[in-house]
Each structure stands twice: as structure tokens, then as C-alpha cells.
Specification:
It contains five helices and six strands; from the N terminus they run E-H-E-E-E-H-E-H-H-H-E. The protein is an alpha+beta fold and 163 residues long. It has one domain: Alpha-Beta Plaits. Strands 1, 2, 3, 4, 5 and 6 form a six-stranded antiparallel beta sheet that branches. The longest helix has 14 residues. The protein is globular, with a radius of gyration of 15 Å. The N and C termini lie far apart (32 Å).
């Protein structure tokens, strides 16, 4: 079965959206792993701080089916990718990798944000430390250890998944 990693971010009803997204996706993902929750300041726009995680595991879905599933959940919770104002994001579900696939269509994989954003790379390295980036061959842990962007502010928070 293919292994996937997904980045999840929200800055609207954050606890509700984190829990709901995982509740809806859990039946599709075997051996589910979930990173710690990180609070992050918005990058390149205003608004409330985000809660971010990376989760993943094995799926029986094709790449296209996986993308359709993520987009349908975003749409169900009023995620509007066409909206100009990005200060309020209910659910942002981005496929980071699908096995070692490298492609431009139907989505860019591996996702470029892995190498650019601390709030993606750190939680990815938490749950897939030994996996290798399919383009540069470095582990996600080594990529995180070499990451240096002090402008990106984020911190791990305690999050109660059972509340």
C-alpha cells in the first residue's frame, strides 16, 4: 500500500477542525501516525495563528482518489481555495508525498512547502524522520536539522485529542 503524508492547517475553530478532519480521514489510513500540534504565525498574510500537524500512513487509494478525498473534506468545511482573503482558513489539507512519487500533475509531489515552511517540515520530521525526500535523497530529519528560517515563528502546544 502507498504511504502518504498530509499537512493539516487551520485558524478557524481550530480544535474542531483538527479533530473532525482526522475523524473523517482515519478510516482511509492504516497505521496512522500524527505529529505533535504546532501553533504558527501566519506566513505572508494576516489573521489568527494556525494550528498545524502532519499525519499519514498507508492508503488503499490511488493518488487521484486521495486528492479527491482531501478536497472533498476541505469543501465540506467551506475551504475556498479561490478566495482572495486567506486570513481565515477552516481546513487546509495538503498532500506532501505519495510514496516516492515525483510529479507535476495532478498535483506537485513532493510538495514544495516541505523545504520552505517550518510548520510543514518540523511535524513531517516528527512522524517520518527516516523517510527520504524523493528528489534530494535526504531524510526529513536531516532536512529539519539543517533548516534555518528564524522569521517563521512556531511552537509545539499541548493538545487534548480526547476532549
Amino acid at each position: 500500500m502507498p504511504q502518504i503524508a498530509v499537512s493539516l492547517g487551520t485558524n478557524v475553530k481550530t480544535e474542531f477542525h483538527l479533530k473532525t478532519a482526522l475523524f473523517l480521514l482515519r478510516p482511509f489510513i492504516n497505521n496512522l501516525v500524527i505529529s505533535p500540534v504546532y501553533e504558527t504565525e501566519p506566513v505572508s498574510f494576516g489573521g489568527e495563528n494556525f494550528l498545524n500537524i502532519v499525519f499519514g500512513g498507508e492508503v488503499k487509494l490511488s493518488l487521484e482518489q486521495t486528492l479527491d478525498l482531501l478536497k472533498s473534506i476541505e469543501q465540506q468545511y467551506q475551504r475556498n481555495r479561490q478566495k482572495y482573503n486567506k486570513t481565515e482558513i477552516t481546513l487546509d489539507l495538503d498532500l506532501l508525498f505519495y510514496d516516492d512519487q515525483v510529479c507535476q500533475q495532478p498535483v506537485v509531489l513532493p510538495r514544495r512547502e516541505i523545504l520552505k515552511n517550518a510548520f510543514v517540515l518540523k511535524p513531517l520530521s516528527d512522524v517520518f524522520a527516516d523517510n527520504k525526500h524523493p528528489e534530494n535523497g535526504q531524510t526529513y530529519l536531516s532536512l529539519w536539522q539543517a533548516f534555518n528560517n528564524p522569521k517563521q515563528k512556531f511552537w509545539q502546544i499541548d493538545f487534548n485529542w480526547n476532549k
